[in-house]
Each structure stands twice: as structure tokens, then as C-alpha cells.
Write a structure and sequence with these properties.
Helix 2 runs parallel beside helix 3 and helix 7 packs parallel to helix 8. By secondary structure, this protein is α/β, with parallel strands linked by helices. The chain is built from ten helices and ten strands.
Length: 260
């Protein structure tokens, strides 16, 4: 039976779409948040994903970017009620399969899904399945330190999917405590945080002779803070918004150089 995933923060919409497609013979999975949807996508590998554009916390464009990181060819249909032209263009730039405005007949959506599933599935890298060799543990631990819950959770998920033991904390004091308990191979460290900022965390790490790698992530261009951070010897400084593939490449280089 063909699987369809519906990601929409409106539970009633999820249930309505689910009932319609179930009657058409599909197996329908649903999620009411982006994070939940990505988890189901990774575990179940649906044939088509129907994705609401406007959701709190993690919007549809962010979810689509994450899906593209997992599978560049996965068919995704966006429901774009109230979308701006810029949002539509961004979605199309991410190779969305189709863009359907909310309020149209559900028959339009059904026809769209029927058309997509009749097309041959494009080859794509096998999606990781928990516990399988595809996500074999690299043996390397990465600690994500960022006071933005969404960014922290996204990075932990992203890195976990690539075989790293990823942990997330949201303030400097907790980060230092974690390092003291079990030193990670790499720390992804937000530069600007309330209380203890990234510069102070890095200074404390150096005083405690932490030997792992450090990558600073920051959305600021404050030259004084960046200069002070560089003086403490991080391996890399990467700007926000993050390019996840660039970040992954930097992480791999830092870890390889550390082993050398």
C-alpha cells in the first residue's frame, strides 16, 4: 500500500486529508508539527509528502529543506494558503513537486497525488533507519550549544541522522557541565547567548584544557566579538542562517584533522 505523509499543524485538516486519501486506498500517516513530520518521514519513507507551508516553530520551508537534505528526490506537495510570492519562489527553488493553494477542492489534491505516484520513483540514497547499518554510529560525539530551541533541536536531529552522537544544551553553564562529565569530540557553539556567551564558554574550555574541536556559529558580524572568539582558537566560524551541507563538511574536516 502506498504511503502518504501529511504534515499540518491544523489537526482537523490532517484528519480530513487522511480520511479522503484512505478512501482512495492509500496508507496515510500524519503529523501536526514539523519536527514530528521529519521523524515520521525518516522512519517511514513515504511515497508523497503533503506539507503545510505556514506552521508555528518550524514552517513548511524549513521542513522542506530538511527533507531535501535526507532525500533530494522525495515528492513533496505544498499546501500554501496565504503564501507570499517570495515563499512560493523559495519552495519552487527547493524543487517542490507541486504547490496547491488551500481552499481548492480536495479533488485537485487527490489528482495531484495520483499523478505523482504513477511516475517512476527517482533513485535516491537509502534513507537511514534507526538501528540499521545505514546510520551506523560514527563513534563521535557532538555537543550543540544554542539558546534557540528550534536551532538546537534541528541540529541535533540533523547530526543524529548522519550517525553522530548529538547532544543539545541551551546555555553555557550546562555546556561546561556536559563537557566536564564526558568530553565530546566537537562542540558547535553559538556565539551570542544570554548569561554566558560563546566567547566565555570557549575561554572556559581552553582553561580546562578541552582537546576537542570547536566550531562557532553566529548570526552576528560584531567584529570585536569575532576577533576575540578567533583568538581562543576555534577550528571554524560559520554564519547563520546555516547551510547544513556546508556545516556537515566543516564538521567532517574538523574531526578528520583532529584525528590526524
Amino acid at each position: 500500500m502506498i504511503k502518504i505523509l501529511v504534515i499540518d499543524d491544523d489537526r482537523m485538516n490532517c484528519e480530513l486529508i487522511q480520511s479522503v486519501f484512505t478512501r482512495h486506498g492509500y496508507q496515510v500517516l500524519s503529523a501536526t508539527s514539523g519536527i514530528e513530520g521529519l521523524t515520521i518521514f525518516r522512519q517511514q519513507a513515504p511515497r508523497v509528502t503533503i506539507l503545510d507551508l505556514r506552521m508555528p516553530e518550524m514552517d513548511g520551508l524549513t521542513v522542506l529543506k530538511e527533507i531535501r537534505a535526507y532525500d533530494p528526490h522525495a515528492p513533496v506537495i505544498i499546501l500554501g494558503g496565504g503564501a507570499t510570492e517570495e515563499q512560493e519562489n523559495q519552495a519552487r527553488g527547493l524543487c517542490v513537486t507541486d504547490f496547491i493553494r488551500k481552499g481548492l477542492s480536495l479533488d485537485v489534491l487527490v489528482e495531484c497525488v495520483n499523478r505523482v505516484v504513477q511516475l517512476p520513483a527517482k533513485s535516491a540514497p537509502a534513507l537511514p533507519v534507526a538501528g540499521s547499518a545505514a546510520v551506523a554510529d560514527t563513534g563521535e560525539t557532538i555537543l550543540v550549544v544554542d539558546d534557540e530551541p528550534l536551532v538546537c533541536d534541528l541540529l541535533v536531529q540533523f547530526l543524529s541522522l548522519r550517525g553522530y552522537r548529538a547532544l543539545g544544551v541551551r546555555d553555557g553553564a550546562e555546556a561546561l557541565s556536559m563537557v566536564e562529565q564526558a568530553s565530546p569530540d566537537l562542540v558547535l557553539l553559538d556565539l551570542f547567548m544570554p548569561g554566558m556567551d560563546g566567547v566565555e564558554v570557549l575561554r572556559q574550555l581552553r582553561q580546562r584544557e578541552y582537546t576537542g574541536g570547536v566550531i562557532i556559529i553566529t548570526g552576528s558580524h560584531d567584529e570585536d566579538s569575532l576577533e576575540e572568539a578567533w583568538s581562543l582558537g576555534p577550528q571554524e566560524v560559520i554564519g547563520k542562517p546555516l547551510d547544513l551541507e556546508q556545516l556537515l563538511t566543516s564538521i567532517q574536516l574538523v574531526l578528520v584533522c583532529r584525528e590526524c
